[in-house]
Amino acid sequence: AKRRKTLGKMDVLTRQFFENNENFAAAVNGYLFRGRKVVSAEDVKELDVTETRVDKNGRLVKNTRDLAGRVVVRRVNDICCVIIGIEDQQKIDYTMPLRCLRVDSMRYDQQLRRIKNEHRTKKDLKIGTAEYQCHFSKNDKVLPVITIVVYWGSEPWDGPHTLYDMMDISKDSELLHFISDYRVNLIDAHSMSEHQLCEYGEKLGYLLGLVKASEDRLSMREYIKTPSKVLNDYETRALAEKVVNHTLPSSEEEDEDMRNKAFEEVLKEEWVKGREEGCEEKQNAFILSMRKNGIPEEQIQIILKDAKVVG
Asked: pTM, whole model, 2 decimals?
């Protein structure tokens, strides 16, 4: 069967980043435990990333997570096993709660089929009992499933966070008591404080900081002009460059002039984007913003000239 979608460059880079168990654990600790080191790289075990089920017409349906599904195991008085998958989201998806529900239900169904097949093979359930009829004993358990959505878009997420948000129903309706909700576990840097970004560790925290700064290209100035050792890591650097869509200088290899040049390239792109949109007011506001942020007039004129506009 064909994959659900063809992976683009961003998907591949994100997959590479989270295939590093330390980065995967950082996402789990940041989102689920507010930065506490509950899960270590050693606790992360890779799973098959493809969920498979049979639809009502008997056809095989496969769903491949954008990123590797994992089992996170942590011993806290007892063994706790959780299946965690990370979805890579580059644009706002107004169907996200249903997407997560579908992916998670397929993972539960996969577990259920495995348990049923084990009982059929072992023939360990008493014939004629309810357990035999459903091939699932009252002592059988499934592992909890959690999907974490990492949003890389430059615009703040304005899509639904829960299944309720997708419904045309009053929040105080009595019917809600009978309707199960489903929440999106969303990592949206735009809604985070600096403290919250730090909860995701150095590498992922830096990347999420870039995403937050992408709301305003000028806010990216400190990220680009300030050296960061995390860019010496190949996976982090490649993903960071895709987020800003430009080559970034590393902390050890490049000097201040090269960091200034990288920042200028980002500003040129923002100006050209405003020009293509035909918004003169937006262009003038952008020039004013550059001045307010302390960018020398000479540098502003160079940026405008290189972008083939008259300042």
From this structure: 0.77
